[in-house]
């Protein structure tokens, strides 16, 4: 018999606003993504200086996950048995373009190590893992669009096979300053919202 | 030399994205690594690129960086002696 799992909480950052469990916690429509994410970071009292060294995709994923996980009141000194399953369409394209720009001109060839290290999408998972001491399973999938079916079945498999007790999963997309979106949710054995493809889609579209 | 030290501080803050830090926050003798700036190994590579890009200095042996990047004082002394631009 399949044990039911639940969505404990969710957080999204899109259209210049941050929402936690359906409630808007920050909104700032006038700024660019860089200014918006910095303002959201400050308003949420994130206090993690390494944030400013991250690329845009990692800033987006890190802050979304951080706002959600802070609300879970995890002990920051303990290892947390939470797997991560993230996905997007653009992979690390925004940072790949920046790296390409830095090596385009042979007369001005100065690739930046700090940019290069972010030319993989799953680096954002590493950033979250470092802060929250997550040593469990993690995967980053590239899809044409938000794939609730895959996220749902993969997450069920991780929990039912005891790979993790909870799974942080979702969609973290950053193509350019005007095209970004993060939707992350936490799945566990207890909660209020049923973990089904339909419910995931409802939350994603809300 | 003092102007070069100020320039290095400004460049480091910009290059390494030390948010909310100003030139005044870095003393000439402060340890750049293992101190309050919180620089890591990727930052060390960024400083090597900065020396090349801004001052035409190519460090062929990364181990040299340990002494050169000890503080703003040691960096400025090295840049003043070896810069080609």
From TrEMBL, chain A:
Name of the protein described by the UniProt record: 3-oxoacyl-ACP synthase
UniProtKB/TrEMBL annotation, chain B:
InterPro entries, A to Z: ACP-like_sf, PP-bd_ACP
Any coiled-coil regions, as ranges: none
SUPFAM superfamilies cross-referenced by the UniProt entry: ACP-like
Gene3D superfamilies found in the cross-reference section: ACP-like (1.10.1200.10)
Domain Carrier: 2-83
Top-level lineage group: Bacteria
NCBIfam families the UniProt entry points to: PRK09184.1
Name of the protein in question: Acyl carrier protein
Organism, scientific name: Mariniflexile gromovii
